[in-house]
Amino acid sequence: MMKRIMLFGTCLLVPFLAFTAQEQPQPASMTTSTTRQVLAREVNIKIDLLSDEQTQAGFNSDEIKDVIVHELDAAGVTFNEGISQPVLVLRIRTLQVGLDLATFFQLNLLEEAMLIRNRSLFQATTWSQASLLSCRPEELKKEVLDTVTVMTQAFAKDYTQAIQPMGK
Fold first, then answer.
1. pLDDT value of position 49
2. Residue 54: CATH number of its domain
3. Which of 125, 120, 117, 114 is nearest to 155 (CA)?
4. H or E segment at 43?
């Protein structure tokens, strides 16, 4: 029997809110995002890889990436491996616990952000969701793919809502 626990789900999307704020002058040495980059519905994907239990269950990061790309595409978000950011990062860790496998998932959107106090650029988490799954080894592949599907759908919904032009 599968048990799934949602640990947290947060949609911070600070860069999108900052876009509507008054523009601050930028130092000449820093590059800035164009409106197209801020409003584009495209992300890169990175998967922080699988444990031996997951590999033995018969799937790999390409299969998980295909699920993510399919769900993003269904929501109108394009996968673009040619961009460095924003990047959607999926981390999965599986441990044997008795006869079951416990799997932790974390899906984050990382985007370039700037600190106001010293105008330094860094990668910030602007959306994050985590989940914990417990299942029998023979159910692992299906349960992992189902969990990744649900998490990606939640991300895509929040992401497309956040980048809608003002007034729509």
1. 72
2. 3.30.160
3. 125
4. strand 42-48
**Structural domain contains residue 103:** yes
Identify whether 44 is part of a domain.
yes
Provide the residue range defining the domain that includes 138. 40-162
18 membership: H or E segment, kind and range: helix 14-20
pLDDT in tens, 1-21: 444 544 333 333 333 333 333
Cα–Cα distance, 166 to 168 (Å, whole number)? 6
pTM for the complete prediction?
0.73
Total of domains in the chain = 1
In a domain, 15, yes or no: no
Burial profile 2-19: b = 16 or more Cβ within 10 angstroms, e = fewer: eeeeeeeeebebebbeeb
Residue at 10 is within a domain:
no
Q: What's the Cα-to-Cα distance from 102 to each of 10, 92, 115, rounded to whole Å?
A: 22, 10, 37
